[in-house]
């Protein structure tokens, strides 16, 4: 039986609808949005004494159900199909004496002005606005003008719609320009998610007298999970907010039908501020044999640990899901701008939402476990927050690591899942006779002086490898008599600090383009300048170029640990200009013949990386590489002369000798830091 129109234009044809309803017979036809789902929204805007007009009523049961539950009885239904009006008059008959059905075109209604308090439209606008042709838009303008005419001031036009972008945009722009208040409600999803993928929305347009001039638009959205509307600043933002919810509904529908081959990531935002509160990653493990108890689990990542390889990378999350033994694992990262009321509070907040991401076949009442490391949500204290003209917004925060360890981190918020600098904090040592802090005593506030920095500990594996590269320096003595080091990129200062403190003969020059970073390193990371440590606020490109022209061959070691501000390039460290051939030749010029140039390379673009390596080989005859396990970082050790080539055995011996010289009695040393281990995986390119 052919019930669909040959062309969208037929949706406006009375002849089409007569044929449609004759063929369908007495069975009610609901485009979308059954009464149980619509009822909570309609109750807010339809009062028992209101006079209600339903345009394009069809043979939907909506009016009858509103009448029967006592929501409203004074209801007038109109439609252009004579067949359906006759059918509905017979169906309702004397059972609903105050409700009427009239044959009428909503584009030319016979009602007097300001006759109704409510106009209800369930799918009619969607059926009419099938395209954006001039003739179609003219009909829609006529429809809106007639609705406006028959509504009283303070009356509501309620439009049930699937909210296609062009339909919503047209309605919002028309009525907001008329000075009406526009609010969009998302209707709660029905229990049967197989029936409709896209969610249903109700536009609520409240009529106000038009104020001359440019009155501010009032545009709001009410997601299904909350009653309080959220204000948006423009029609475009309202359309975008609706589109986000449509995409989420489609995603949930797909996740509920089939396993996901690729990891899915989404943000859940705070109701009040609209800022991200949780970041969820959905990870399926095909290798896990499903049973009743291992289908689905939620893993709460402790605060401050979302940057770790296990939680912050796709490969790490796959390993986590597999080792946890669940077919589908949803990892949940907590955002630093938000406050959380412990694991129980997070579980209560997320339990309903995460079930929308459940795998296919999960029983409706299945208990889903919430997992974490050590059963808590971790500790994160923001110590400092500021904005740099060069680096953008950044924070300094203290986070709890494994066991009793605490770390201080510098995070650039433009890339919030990457730790820019990190240092371990020393546990406070009570003074003689001083009592320990009581457990119930108030925690220190971020305004208190920072805890002491453990300068003997290099948190970053790539920094450990960069320091180990000093074993490549020539001479029989593992500790050279003099050591001039240039470090480009300060960050928190842990790399130049370690070189300064452990190589007593070293004179370290640091080049940093951002003066804010010098302030951060000094105030929060224990950095200080002195006779053997000087910071130069300058662009590294300019500084090296000037040295190459004025004072060549003066450094035993040059280290580049500088990030790129351009996130569109597939290389986040260093900026591309730092690995162009003319500049690398200047680096070689200021390096002594027996010296070493150490570069921290972070490049996800395979072609770009190969190009960088080729350029480095052109400039430096001897090139070693060291991959950092579990990270994108690759440390490159470049030397200007092939005569300095050393085999792995010799490198290991020099590393052990250097470590022995650095481990002076009474000087703290991280026992996990073995220089020889750092050089075991070094390869010559």
Automatic annotation (TrEMBL):
Point to the regions of Basic residues compositional bias: 434-444
Alphabetized, the UniProt keywords read: Methyltransferase, Multifunctional enzyme, Transferase
Q: What is this protein called?
A: eEF1A lysine and N-terminal methyltransferase
Pull one GO CC term from this UniProt entry: cytoplasm
Q: Name one Pfam family in it.
A: Spermine_synth
Question: InterPro entries from the entry?
Answer: Lys/N-term_MeTrsfase_sf, Methyltranfer_dom, SAM-dependent_MTases_sf
Keyword Methyltransferase belongs to the record:
yes
């Amino acid at each position: 039986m052919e019930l669909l129109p040959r062309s969208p234009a037929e949706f406006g044809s009375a002849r089409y609808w007569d044929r449609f309803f004759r063929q369908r017979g007495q069975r009610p036809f609901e485009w979308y949005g059954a009464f149980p789902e619509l009822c909570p929204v309609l109750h807010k805007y339809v009062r028992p004494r209101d006079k209600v007009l339903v345009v394009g009523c069809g043979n939907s049961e909506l009016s009858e159900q509103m009448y029967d539950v006592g929501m409203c009885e004074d209801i007038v239904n109109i439609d252009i199909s004579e067949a359906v009006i006759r059918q509905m008059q017979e169906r309702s008959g004397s059972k609903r004496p105050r409700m009427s059905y009239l044959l009428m075109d909503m584009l030319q209604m016979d009602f007097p002005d300001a006759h109704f308090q409510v106009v209800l439209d369930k799918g009619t606008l969607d059926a009419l606005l099938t395209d954006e042709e001039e003739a179609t838009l003219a009909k829609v303008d006529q429809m809106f003008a007639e609705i406006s005419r028959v509504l009283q001031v303070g009356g509501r036009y309620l439009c049930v719609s699937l909210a296609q972008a062009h339909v919503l945009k047209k309605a919002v722009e028309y009525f907001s320009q008329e000075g009406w208040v526009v609010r969009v409600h998302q209707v709660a999803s029905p229990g049967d998610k197989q029936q409709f993928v896209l969610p249903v929305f109700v536009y609520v347009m409240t009529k106000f007298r038009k104020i001359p001039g440019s009155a501010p638009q009032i545009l709001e959205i009410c997601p299904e999970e909350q009653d309080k509307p959220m204000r948006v600043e423009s029609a475009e933002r309202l359309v975008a907010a609706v589109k986000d919810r449509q995409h989420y509904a489609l995603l949930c529908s797909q996740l509920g039908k089939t396993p996901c081959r690729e990891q899915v990531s989404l943000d859940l935002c705070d109701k009040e501020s609209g800022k991200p509160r949780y970041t969820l990653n959905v990870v399926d493990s095909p290798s896990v044999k499903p049973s009743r108890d291992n289908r689905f689990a939620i893993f709460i990542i402790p605060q401050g640990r979302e940057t770790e390889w296990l939680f912050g990378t796709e490969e790490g999350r796959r390993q986590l899901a597999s080792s946890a033994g669940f077919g589908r694992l949803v990892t949940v990262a907590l955002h630093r701008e938000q406050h959380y009321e412990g694991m129980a509070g997070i579980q209560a907040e997320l339990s309903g939402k995460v079930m929308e991401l459940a795998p296919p076949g999960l029983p409706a009442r299945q208990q889903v476990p919430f997992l974490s490391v050590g059963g808590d949500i971790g500790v994160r204290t923001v110590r400092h927050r500021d904005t740099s003209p060069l680096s953008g917004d950044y924070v300094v925060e203290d986070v709890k690591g494994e066991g009793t360890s605490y770390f201080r981190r510098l995070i650039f918020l433009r890339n919030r899942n990457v730790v820019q600098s990190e240092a371990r904090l020393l546990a406070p040592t009570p003074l003689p006779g001083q009592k320990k802090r009581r457990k119930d005593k108030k925690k220190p506030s971020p305004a208190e002086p920072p805890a002491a920095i453990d300068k003997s500990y290099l948190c970053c594996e790539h920094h450990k490898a960069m320091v180990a590269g000093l074993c490549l320096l020539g001479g029989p003595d593992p500790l050279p008599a003099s050591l001039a080091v240039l470090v480009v990129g300060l960050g928190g200062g842990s790399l130049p600090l370690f070189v300064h403190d452990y190589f007593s003969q070293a004179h370290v020059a640091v080049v940093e383009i951002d003066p804010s970073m010098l302030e951060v390193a000094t105030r929060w990371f224990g950095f200080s300048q002195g006779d053997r440590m000087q910071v130069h606020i300058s662009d590294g490109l300019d500084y090296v170029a000037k040295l190459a022209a004025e004072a060549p061959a003066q450094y035993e070691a040059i280290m580049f640990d500088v990030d790129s501000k351009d996130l569109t390039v597939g290389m986040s460290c260093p900026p591309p200009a730092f690995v162009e051939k003319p500049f690398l030749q200047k680096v070689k010029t200021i390096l002594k013949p027996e010296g070493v140039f150490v570069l921290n390379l972070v490049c996800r673009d395979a072609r770009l990386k190969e190009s960088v390596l080729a350029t480095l080989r052109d400039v430096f005859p001897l090139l070693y590489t060291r991959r950092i396990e579990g990270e994108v970082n690759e440390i490159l050790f470049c030397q200007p002369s092939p005569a300095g080539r050393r085999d792995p055995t010799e490198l290991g011996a020099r590393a052990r000798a250097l470590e022995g010289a650095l481990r002076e009695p009474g000087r703290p040393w991280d026992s996990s830091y073995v220089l020889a281990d750092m050089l075991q995986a070094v390869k010559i390119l």
